[in-house]
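Worked example 4.2. Below are the chains of a multi-component assembly; read each line carefully before continuing.
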Amino acid sequence: MSIDRKAPLELTPSQTIGPFFAYALTPRAYGGKELATEQVAPEGVAGERIRIEGVVYDGDGVPVGDAMLETWQADAEGRFNAAGNAGFTGFGRAETSAEGAYFIETVRPGALLGPNGAMQAPHLTVSVFARGLLIRLATRIYFDDEPGNTADPVLALVPEERRATLIARRGADGVYRFDVRLQGEGETVFFDV
Amino acid sequence: MSLIFPRTGLQAHPLNNSPEYRSTLKRAPSQPLILLPHTLSETSGPVFGHAAVAEGDSDLTRQHAGEPLGERIIVSGRVLDEDGRPVPHTLIEIWQANAGGRYVHVKDQHPAPLDPNFTGAGRALTDAEGRYRFVTIKPGAYPWRNHHNAWRPAHIHFSLFGPSFLSRVITQMYFPGDPLFPFDPIFQSITDAKARERLVSRFDLQTTEPEWALGYQFDIVLRGREMTPTEEPHEH
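Applying the procedure described above to all two chains together yields the following structure tokens:
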């Protein structure tokens, strides 16, 4: 069957977040009410507590001190927007510091179904916004100690030599390290979504 | 409602590689983006309810003891998807400079006065018909250092979520007839003139309130079309 549809409306184009978003989007230093923070999982949320931290760099290796990262993820059971679970929203927001650093504290997401019935390894979906980016950059954070990475259908689309840019490395202190390189050597893989 | 997210409309967006806007030079990725199939991770997204918005968040002129200086305005419109259906109960965050073109942000060094009665940040949820309404002050133009004598046209930053990770967008709303449009590399980074026009609000006498505030209409179209059955192949 076919359905007659009118021509679609045209999308509203993106523009840069600019340098001055903090007092609205990440307003802690301004005393404003935050929509979401680096603390994604309030007390009582089920799952293994993890911390991810890193630095956002530009093409010269200079830290980007005016970026905002947003993370989106499934809960420990691999569910999005599940009712209950202590109010876990799965959404995090972090502004980089003057040194380009950010962190996210959350629970390790579960594996979930992907295209054509394949299982996706645990990951966070990430948007990077900054002055100088006219449209957000989309990437993913995987974890280096997840055996499911080798069968992940999205990682499989990425040339092998660039795959490591999507994988957070767990240090001796248990913290996962995930740097974002916007441009040049070791450039993070960004997705066309 | 089940939505799909075609990529056909995406050419409206600017490219990150837009060298006239100099901040892109060291920040735009040099490698091609990798096409991502849409999985549950992308077709889902955060949901914000009334807890995200406090009473008065949508009136930027009443957040302090006194009234801010400048031209009081009403900005309202609808948030729609690509099929023209309203996007109900979705969060909008806005921020802007004051009437003198100065942001509250600590890094804004433009020597124009701060206004103790104006912060310039607001939030609203769309109603069941996708409508929103802000009361604010018309922001001033301001200089920046992109090139010699560079000035940003007056604008209000808009941040929207819509139903999924794929509909997430941050943009800027402009005012009709701004003489700075031809000289602004951020506005001009959108190469299609018709797409640029979609970021320009429309003065509207209906929205204007007598003896009170000028009204502007700004509709926003987010990604998302209704899932429809695919055509079955017929045997001949």
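Take a moment to check your reading of the output against the notes. The longest strand of chain B covers residues 72-81. Chain B touches chain A through 86 residues (CB under 8 Å).
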